[in-house]
Every structure is written in C-alpha cells, then in structure tokens.
Write a structure and sequence with these properties.
Elements (H helix, E strand, L loop, with lengths): L3 E12 L2 E12 L3 E5 L6 H8 L7 E6 L2 E2 L4 H6 L1 E4 L11 H11 L4 H14 L15 H13 L5 E5 L7 H16 L3 E6 L2 H7 L2 E6 L2 E7 H5 L5 H9 L4 H13 L2
Parallel strand pairs: 3-8, 3-9, 6-7, 7-8
Antiparallel strand pairs: 1-2, 1-4, 4-5, 9-10
Amino acid sequence: MAETVLEVRNLTKNYAGLPAVNAVNFSIRAGEVLGYLGHNGAGKSTTVKMLAGLLEPTSGEVCFHGADIRKDLAAYKRRVGYVPEESHLYSFLTGWEYLDLVGTLRGMPLAVREDKSARMLEELSLFRHRHTAIAAYSKGMRQRIMLIAALLDDPELLILDEPFSGLDVVSALVMRRLLNLLAANGKAIFFCSPVLETVEKVCTHLVVLRQGELVASGSMQQILASRSELAESFFQLTEQVDADGIAGRILSAIAAR
C-alpha cells in the first residue's frame, strides 16, 4: 500500500462560534486523486485554505507525512502546488514574468524555470501570449497560468480548488489526462469541486461534505458500482432538493407580467 501523504484529523473551523468545517477526517496516499464534493457553502473552500496553510484550524490537524504542517509551514508549502478558487494574480505582470517570479520564489535555477515555463506555456496554447499583461488575459488564460505555476516545481502534493473553472473543453480534457498521469507517477492530489460529473472523471476516491460535515467517503470504484444512483445519492447526501419544483417556480417568475 502506498504511503499516506496527507492526513486530516478532526479538522474543525468555527466562525463566530458556528462550525464551517466540523471534525472532518480523510487521508490521501501517493497515487490517489481525492475528490472533495459538496454544494456551495458546504465548507469546501474553508477546508482547502486550511490544507494550503492559509487558514488556522480552530482544532484538529493537517498532517504531511505524519507531521502537523504547522511545525514547519514553509517547508510544507515548498512541496505543495496550490490552485485557489479565485485566480488572484499580479495583473501588471506578464504571464512569463509571473511564472519567473514563482520559480524564483521556489528557488528554481533560471535555466530550469525558463525551460519548464516555455514548454508548459506552449502545450497550453499560451506561449504567444507570454509577454502580454495578465490584466488582458481571459479567465481561462488566467486559470491556465495558475495551473502552470502550481506544477512548475514538480510538487509532491497538489491542492486544487475548482481548477477547471473557466477552462475551454480542450484545456479541461488535457488537464484531466495530466492529473491521471501525475497520479500514476505517485503524486497525491486533492481535487475540490461542486460538480459531480467532473469528480467522476478525475478522481480515484471521494469525500462528500454537507454543512461542514463529512457524510460519505470511499473509493470511486466502490461508489461507481451503483453508478445509476450516484447523482441521486449526491443530492440526498448534500441536501434535499426539489429541483423540478424550484425550476418551475423560477420559470413562473421569469414569465410573470
């Protein structure tokens, strides 16, 4: 069995005394892609920020190879590639300058970071835009720059918060295949998404969150054994939704005179 890379133990985050994430437990081994699934407001992004070391838990631990990440947060971050939900970039920089900054901060040799940047920019159809200011980039272009930056220093662990947001069909397909290859090469990947169909295509394991609490977990192979019930089960696990009724009432509101 592969080594556990990341382990979350009773992870809890309270805001004004109310739990956004409540006593969540899961682990990711080398070669696994863990899908973190839940509706908007379920606590996914709060979890991501704690995993990335950007938010202090109220209680519980995030452990990297068995050690609490807070013992040496800087060393942990050097081994992690992180793609946040929102692409907060230095918009006055060009794409090339941004990647050069990331590579420099990670201590990568100049020749290595330039070679890697050029190759990945080319493959993701950004090379001809490398000297364009990020302020002029589309959302999809920004997202591709963030993905390249996260992968630039060959991280052991990837933490991805809705990484396909804004990507075109071709880029999303390439990234799905890339994540599969990275996992096959021993990377541990945390993949946060509210979209069931995306998680199905990418992940080897699944955790379902509802109102900050873990309500289901297991391998995708186990879960997909009852594939025809998966979508319905997701909605039952996350919240009771009368989708037909809601859609009908919205339609009625739209048509009102």
